[in-house]
Each structure stands twice: as structure tokens, then as C-alpha cells.
């Protein structure tokens, strides 16, 4: 039995037909975890769909109405890059419910993993890049609404910049500090701004600079990685970003977006991490959270390997890394 919960539903499947996004990966990850004995049925918790009130904590009423009534404009549907359907709306509401449930379990157990979610390109008033609803932002705002947390940090390790995350929490930045002298030169910590919600969410994004999206709103810390970065350099940049962020900000919850697409065989990525390097990435993020006693909620985000079995392995390794780091850890 795992010392934490895995959040999963067969309803996570995205009904998008033949697509570069492997919609079957969620079921494949679930089945691999069971078949290998890494997890048993008792390790899984089944989510319920987020309520409309939950979604309204992040997204506009007009956008939600368009999704519910199927009245997105042609341009809005084009920006989504997945075919709209009422069934797709249900899947995204369920994914947001999964991230809410993962956050709740993380606060109790120190960590929880949503076998889905991480739709970080969704904005309050529209969707982009396969992302209709920003489940991570919804989970954060729901935890704050329930007075479970006051502050959160997003650590986005998808190969693509978390533009929706940066935009949603644009007023949530704190005053910057200089980077340590050991920080890699490619790290760009842009000027931070204050806003109506100053200080409640700190956003970190490690991503390939020359990749989607073309416009990258500033996160609290952006690490614009050059093409072809390999394991050791990536891990050094992640370590520096986490150290810098946690010197400036103390979150009640870390939301770790564990994209599989920095993998060297990914069809939509241009970095060069190995499967083992990605597991070390997860271990690093989890060790930092555990050492500081900060609960961490994990979502999976992208993964488009030429061989879908590689994406499944990378996502399963996130569970392996969590088990290894948190095996005997419970937060008080």
C-alpha cells in the first residue's frame, strides 16, 4: 500500500479522436501501476467533477457558459487545438475535480498524485493548447476558499511554458531577489509585480524557450531553457529555481506539474532528458518539498513520446519517485 493516494477515473479519457495527445495514456498509466504491483486498487481515490462554482473561482462566467452550451467561436475552438464536444467538457470538469481531491489528500498525507490534470495553458476566459480548464488553479483557489491554505507555489516542469498559470496568478507575485551567483546564465528571473492578490501564489516555469507558446507571460521565475538541454544541466536549473523561489516565498502547498515532454523522444519537445533523468527531476522536487515539510500535489500535464509506452513509463516513474521519497513520511 502506498503512503499517499493516486487520483484517477476512467472519465479522464479525452474524446478527441486521432490526435498527437495520447488520450489513452491515463488508463495505460493506471493499468501499468496495477499490473506491476506498484499500486493496488486501495491506493486509488475516485474524483467527482468540480462544481461550476469551483470553476468560477478561476474562469469567467461567460467562458463557462460557452463551454456548457457549445457556443465557442470558431477562433476559440481553433485555439483549443482539440475538437469541442460536451463529453470533452465533462472530462475537463472531472480533471479539475481530480486536482481538488489531490490537493485535499496532499494536505493530509504530504503528497498526492492526480493521474491527469496539469492543463496549464487555459486562461480565465479561453482555452489554448489542448487545455480547456486550468485544473491546478481551480484546486489552489478552492483550497484557499476552504481556508485550507493561504499560499501556494506552482512548479511547472512541462516542456512548454505555463502561460495560463502565469496569467491567472499575474497579480500574485512578490518582490524579487537577485539570483545566486551559481545560477545558470540562461535563467531569466523577470521583474516581479504586485497586484490585488500579492503574495498568495508564486509561479515557477522551466520550459524550452523556442517552443509553444509564442507569447510567454512572465512567471515569478521563468527558466528559458535552450534546445537540447540534457539531464545534468536541467537538474541544476531546477535546483536553482526551487532554491531561489523558496528563499523568497513560503507556500502552504506546492503544485508540481510533472510533464513527460522534456523527454528526448517527445514529438512536441526539443529538450533531451532521458527517462532516468526525468525520474531524478521528480525525486529532486519531492525531496525539496519533504525536507521543508511542504505538502505537494502532483499533476501530469503533457507527454507526446513517439512510443506512448515511454510516456507511460515516465508518468509511472513519478509514482515510483514519490514512493521512494515519501515512503515513511507523514506530515504532522
Structure description:
Helix 1 crosses helix 10. About 7% of the residues have low confidence. The chain is built from ten helices and nine strands. It has one domain: Arginase, Chain A. With 332 residues, it is of the alpha/beta class. The longest helix is centred in the N-terminal third of the chain and has 24 residues. 51% of the residues are buried. The chain is globular, with a radius of gyration of 18 Å.
Mean pLDDT: 91
Number of domains: 1
CATH superfamily: Histone deacetylase domain
User: What is the level 1 CATH name?
Assistant: Alpha Beta
Order of helices and strands: EHEHHHHEHEHEEEHEHEH
Count up the helices: 10
Number of separate strands: 9
Please report which band the strand proportion falls in: under 5%, 5-15%, 15-25%, 25-35%, 35-45% or over 45%.
5-15%
Distance between the termini: 20 Å
Structural class: alpha/beta
Q: What are the segments in which pLDDT stays under 50 over at least 5 consecutive residues?
A: 172-181, 185-198
Question: Helix proportion of residues, in percent?
Answer: 25-40%
Morphology call = globular
CATH third-level topology: Arginase, Chain A
Strand order of the largest sheet: 2-1-3-9-8-4-6-7-5
Tell me about the biggest sheet?
Answer: 9 strands, mixed
Note the main attributes of this structure.
332 residues; alpha/beta; Arginase, Chain A; 9-stranded mixed beta sheet; 10 helices; 9 strands; globular
Give a brief outline of the structure.
It contains ten helices and nine strands. It has 332 residues and is an alpha/beta fold.
